Each structure stands twice: as C-alpha cells, then as structure tokens.
C-alpha cells in the first residue's frame, strides 16, 4: 500500500471498467463495508488509464484507494487483514464526518452522460467494432452477479440492448477493411472476436464440456 495526495478524502475510489467481474466483486465487497464508493470508469475517462498506470505501476483494474491510501487491486482488497481493513474503513468514515469537499485534483465522479449511446450510427469498420464492444461491456455490466462470478445470459437475451447489438452485427458483412491501418485492423478483429463469443453464447448456449467447446470455437462465426 502507498499514499497519494491526489486521491479524494471521505470515500473509496475504485477505478474500473464496465463488464469487469473483478471490479463488480470489489465494489460488492466495499458496499458491504458501508463506505461511500466513487466508481471511476477508466473506459469512459480514457486519459485516466494512463495516469493510473503511471501512479500505481499497474494497468489492470480494479485499482482501489481508501482516501489517499492505495490498496491495490481486488485480490489485494480481499487479502487485507481484518484489523487493517477496519482501520481503512475508519479513516474514510472519519474524513466523511468532516464534510470536506473533494480536492480539485480528485478523480471525477461517474458522469451519467457518458453512458453508452447504443442508438448511435456506426461510421466505418473501426467505429462499428468499437460500438459492438461497448454494447457487450454494457450487457455484461448489467447482468453480472454481485460477486462477479456468474452471468445472467437469459436476462441478457431479452435485454433491448442485445436486440440493438444484433442489428449492428448484420452490418459487419458490409464493412470495408482495406483502408484500415494494421493497428486498426488488429483492434477491429479483437473486438469482433470477443463480441462473437458472447453472441454465440446467447444464441447457442455456453459450451459445458471439451467437445462442445471444440465445436463452438471451430464453427461459430460471422459470415
């Protein structure tokens, strides 16, 4: 653990991304502790991710601060000794009772206006793959269990956002890839592969044994 003056007092700040099981699990743990939690989506605040990596030395999420005390990731939170965890909770609650406003350089609170605009048009291959990725993360975020260990695929199937995803997936047959750079093509196919797996799970069900996994990953495709 370390101390950083740039973290806000009177709250626990969690840097996370949508659809991250470890992030969901960490926030559920903090909720049970009864401390105010500021969830900063580094997917929505992209510049913060680089700053966070420079500050903590880690590029993974979640990254957790109690006031100005850096705890680490989700596993680090769970490994804290009970007396140390209680000390950190007390630090946060003591600062909260002072009703101090957060410092000017504190991480921004979640911006509700930064939610995924699932209805926006996708202009080109790169934008289409990015929008599909954002929708996939949104669906995961809405249907992950509190412990981050299971996904409600049945609920995801009837979510109107998934219907929008299916509409966008049809557009993949018309995308033009020749004008993309190598890095843009790489990002495109990574995003599409991850989205395809989830789409396949929802339409066909998740494979439950080795043979089903073999068939799933060899035959499920967009064409």
From TrEMBL:
Record-linked SUPFAM superfamilies: Thioredoxin-like
Gene3D superfamilies, per database record: Glutaredoxin
GO MF annotations, alphabetized: electron transfer activity
InterPro entries referenced in this protein's UniProt entry, alphabetically: DUF547, Glutaredoxin, Glutaredoxin_subgr, Grx-like_ET, Thioredoxin-like_sf
Glutaredoxin domain ranges (all copies): 12-70
The DUF547 domain, residue ranges: 179-222
Protein name: Uncharacterized protein
Organism field: Nothobranchius pienaari
Gene name linked to the record: Nfu_g_1_014303
């Amino acid at each position: 653990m370390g101390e950083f003056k740039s973290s806000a007092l009177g709250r626990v700040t969690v840097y996370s991304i949508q659809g991250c099981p470890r992030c969901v699990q960490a926030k559920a743990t903090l909720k049970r502790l009864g401390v105010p939690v500021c969830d900063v989506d580094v997917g929505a605040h992209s510049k913060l991710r680089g700053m966070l990596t420079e500050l903590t030395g880690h590029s993974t999420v979640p990254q957790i601060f109690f006031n100005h005390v850096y705890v680490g990731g989700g596993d680090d939170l769970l490994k804290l000794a009970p007396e140390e965890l209680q000390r950190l909770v007390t630090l946060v609650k003591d600062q909260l009772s002072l009703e101090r406003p957060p410092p000017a350089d504190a991480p921004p609170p979640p911006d509700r206006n930064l939610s995924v605009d699932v209805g926006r048009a996708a202009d080109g291959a790169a934008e289409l793959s990015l929008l599909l990725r954002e929708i996939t993360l949104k669906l995961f975020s809405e249907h992950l269990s509190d412990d981050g260990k299971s996904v409600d695929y049945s609920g995801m199937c009837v979510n109107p956002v998934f219907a929008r995803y299916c509409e966008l997936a049809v557009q993949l047959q018309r995308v033009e890839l020749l004008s993309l750079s190598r890095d843009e093509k790489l990002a495109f196919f990574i995003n599409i592969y991850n989205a395809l797996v989830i789409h396949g799970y929802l339409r066909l069900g998740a494979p439950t044994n080795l043979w089903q996994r073999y068939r799933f990953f060899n035959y499920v495709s967009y064409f």
